[in-house]
Amino acid sequence: MNELATPQAVTLTAASYKSAAKPIWCPGCGDFTVLSAITKALAMMQLPPHEVAVVSGIGCSSRIPAYTNCYGFHGVHGRALAAGTGLKVARPDLTVLVTGGDGDGYSIGGNHFMHACRRNVDLTYIVMDNHVYGMTKGQASPTTEPDWDNKLSPGGTGIRSFHPLVIALASGASFVARAFSGDPNGTADIIAQGIRHPGFAFIEVLSPCVTFRPEQREWKQHAHPAPVAPTDDPARAARRIMTDDGFNIGVLYAGNRTPYPAQRRDATHSVAELEAEFQL
Ligand SMILES: Cc1ncc(C[n+]2csc(CCOP(=O)(O)OP(=O)(O)O)c2C)c(N)n1
Ligand code: SF4
Question: How many A from CA of 25 to the centre of ligand 1?
Answer without folding.
Answer: 15
